[in-house]
Amino acid sequence: MLALVLLVLGCGTDLTSAEKLGYLNADLCLMSTPARSGIAGAKTLWDELQYAHIIQVPYVHFVGAFLPFHRYFMAIHAHLLKAECNYAGPIPYWNETADVGNINGSAIFDVETGFGGNGTGAGGCIADGPFADLTLHFKEDLNTTDYCVTRSLNDRGLSSASQENIDTCLAAKSFTEIWSCLEGRPHGAGHGGVSGTMVNLFLSPGDPIFYLHHGFLDKLWWDWQVLNLTTRLTEIGGNNTASGRGGFPGGGPPGGGFPGNPFGPGGNSSFVPPPGFNTSNPFPFPGLGMEPNKAFTDYFYDGGNITTLNHTLWSVGIVQNITIGDVMDPRSGFVCIEYL
């Protein structure tokens, strides 16, 4: 069990400088610790985490498992920080709403006690801070080549984390509504606001800010669950496989929500495309247009295409498989995080 605390990092006051540096150094540890799971091409534990996300993008986005999988994925990251790097401090998240309108001034991108700044290096690579010149290896098709983490910070993208949008999501009446709402504008906010590697649906876990962004989304899901724990600790649903241009059947999620792609012009209109982004085809990535792979869908154990609590969550052997039912209450079980 993790027995860690999820704390806010964004206002510059909730974690001490020592706590921030401790967390950053733990991430650096994962980036230098040799791979353990036997994944071909993986050099470090950081590579393995990114691989686990890349390989199942069509099955963990625009589907009912989106929120549970990313809660599981965050917990895996936290587990590795503790088990492999002896980290015992708090797990921070990024309060993106507090930084709307001033992403470049956010303490989270401080070069001394934060995640470094904008992509000012060649090709938009991070050039300062603890993750300057961070080298990644896996590409969208799982082939390997060395490349850097890029960023293109912009206020317009982050504006989708506005309090108005958050309040709209928290007013959702069902799981399918909160899922489709959070995977829309709030999800697009952190990815689009940071841009660069973060806007790539496959490769985004390569930027360490990914985990703080999804910590923010998970905290919002928990805030919604707390409003009616009796029902919402077990309420799940949605489709298991993404289809259509926007990922959801028919171009939109069950119960309404954003019309398709949250990263492109069909969805989050505040998104600023990075240089070279093909706006005529907002999903220029392999995988999302393919037929569902029964090696995945049969493994879910849902008995159909509707997500259930029995749905298997998988991490390519980095940690044990669990079910969605195991992560519905983040205070216990595999996740074991206290939200403050």
Indicate the topology.
Elements: E1 4-8, H1 17-32, H2 45-54, H3 57-60, H4 66-85, E2 91-93, E3 135-138, E4 144-148, H5 155-158, H6 163-170, H7 175-182, H8 185-194, H9 209-226, H10 229-232, H11 294-297, E5 312-313, E6 322-323, E7 337-339
CATH topology: di-copper center containing domain from catechol oxidase
Strand content: 5-15%
Broad shape = globular
Derived from helix and strand composition plus strand pairing, the structural class reads mainly alpha
Tell me which CATH architecture applies here.
Answer: Orthogonal Bundle
How large is the radius of gyration?
Answer: 18 Å
Number of helices: 11
Largest sheet: 3 strands, parallel
Protein name: Di-copper centre-containing protein
Organism: Hypoxylon rubiginosum
Question: What does this 3D model show about the protein?
Answer:
The structure is a single chain. The protein is mainly alpha-helical and 340 residues long. It has one domain: di-copper center containing domain from catechol oxidase. The protein has eleven helices and seven strands. A three-stranded parallel beta sheet has the order 2-1-7. Helix 8 runs antiparallel to helix 9. Residues 1-13 and 244-288 have low confidence and may be disordered. It comes from Hypoxylon rubiginosum. This is Di-copper centre-containing protein.
